[in-house]
Amino acid sequence: MQAENPTFKHSLDIVWQSILDLWTGLLESVPLLLAGVIIFLLTWTIARIVDRVLSRALRDSWFKRGFKDLLLQMATVLVWVAGLTVTAVIVFPGLTPAKVLAALGIGSIALGFAFKDIVENFLAGILILWRFPFDPGDFIRWGDIEGKVEEITIRMTLIRKSDGVLVVLPNATLFKEPVDVLTDQDSRRVTVICGIAYGENVDEARGVIEKAVESCDTRASEKPVQIFAQEFADSSINFEVTWWCGSTPVEVRRSRDQVVAAVKRALDEEGIEIPFPYRTLTLKEPLHINNSRLTSETRQQERNAGEYQST
Predict the structure, then answer these.
(1) What backbone phi and psi angles, to 5 degrees, belong to 251?
(2) Could you report the average pLDDT of every consecutive run of 10 residues in the chain (311 residues)?
(3) What is the DSSP letter of 63?
(4) Domain identity same for 91 and 191
(5) Residues 291, 201 within the same domain
(6) Based on the domain organization, do 45 and 110 belong to the same domain?
(7) What global pTM score does this model have?
(8) Number of other CB atoms surrounding residue 112 within 10 Å
(9) Which structural domain, as residue segments, surrounds residue 95?
(10) CATH number of the domain encompassing residue 239
């Protein structure tokens, strides 16, 4: 029987020894891994407790809702960073907190370059939650998008439009461009245009319109009603009718509906005309009508009609 190759046997010994070393190292690391799992679960528990306690503490505070959300999210992040740092130090004994923080710093720089948009939205989200004048529940308008702010997170803002569609906007977009906060105040000014015929009395019509608007219960009674004659339009004198009502979109629509109906009813009762468009045609040259031709054509039509009736 041929003797075994000593080189092959030596290689097998090395492989076997490496497997034994790995197994031994794994057995030695089991207590550390268990401790890491325990610390991880403890971190999760502490994060939940901190969130609940801080939520109760901030519930009746004078801080804005956005700032409260920022405090809750930042507190949760700090708890997780501390817990994961302790877990890493326990599982990997060679690590120290200084090395972990240094690695996090270098990693943050690398991630900042690799995920520029994500980091930008993250920072914008912090600034929106901290200083922006709208909170979840407010109605805002950004470009063609108008709706209710449902949630503001670190990365994005969720807006529910009036038709039920959910719009997800990156925070950096909201932070860079103008945003109209429709419910910043309890009331909002609304304007409609109302026209009367040229033959009507302007001052009388103004008084009728003003009384009609003041009779509406959807307007803000503490704010004045303003009626201004605006322009000489093609078929009417137009009034700019302005009043204040609730600031939410549905309150604005309801108030506009009530005011338009009341003004139309009041003008009809007073006999004041809301005109249809009139058009006056001016010909460059006079138009001549041949009466004799029209008379002969009329007689011929009457004759034909009589013959038709006789048959």
Answers:
(1) -65, -40
(2) 57 67 64 78 85 77 66 79 78 66 56 54 67 81 90 83 89 82 90 93 94 93 92 91 93 95 95 82 69 57 55 49
(3) S
(4) no
(5) yes
(6) yes
(7) 0.57
(8) 13
(9) 12-114
(10) 3.30.70.100
